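Appendix B, Record 12. Input sequence as logged:
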Amino acid sequence: MRNWKYVIAATAIGLAAFLLYRTLSRYSLDQLIAAVAAVPVPRLLGAAGFAAASYLCLSFFDYLALHYVKRPLPYRKAALASFTALSLGHNIGLAALSSGAVRYRFYNRWGLKTGEVAKVIVFCGITVGLGLLVLGGAALLLRSGLAMEITGLTRPAVLALGTGCLALPALYLVLSAFLRKPLTIRRWSLEMPPLRLAIGQVLIGSINFAFVAACLHQALAAVADVAYLGVASVYVIANATALVSHVPGGLGVIESVVMYLLPQNDLIGPLLVFRFVYFLVPLVLGSILFSVTELVYRRKGSAYVTDGIGAKA
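Logged structural output:
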């Protein structure tokens, strides 16, 4: 029964290595070098900084989720599980399953039950949705003219869509404040978090996607005069498309949507830089980190982990 855990670990590492190879093999070495060289160093550093800030925000998704299930762990453990799971999950696709499997691998060691890990995954998924809604709604309302130009929608449609995007997180906060029983929709049931955690979800989810959009903006601004909110609007559309399609890392989806909505002949370089900085570098780091932690915990065998919740490895 224990062997299936090692199968998950080996599969995740192998798939991550394959995705890295598949992504890089689409381009020649000269193309890759030229793409990075076309972006000025300050823009490249800015993109890297915003990418790092995003992954820092993502670690608080798990930290808040662990408080939601009433199984808080030290921040360093939440950050380790979050970064490893999401650096792989962002590239593998089907994030709820891929990153969820990696999260289970960590949290099960630290004493969480299967149902509690499932609640952590759902909580983090809802935080993602809230962040996308807030960023998208703000971009649509604050730059409605630009949104009309990008999307081709009429102003009333853009304003209605933006208002609807912001109304859903507001409703979520209201339900968290006043609903004491689980929210049930047909066979689906959700225990609403306390208001303070719900506020944390909305804030940290929004800040995270603001950083991701800023990362993309830094790369695109190297070759195109684009406004941050315009890039944010495009990124929300591209990310939503990638989530629906479940393509690993949104590979090709994000690039296609951005190049369609912001037609520029020289965007491929900055888009490659964005993919390097936000997807591939974390993928390499996360794969190494996951491999190292698997080796460490495997050597521990059945020894108790004494620095957190005492659970067998």
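Strands lie at 183-185, 188-190.
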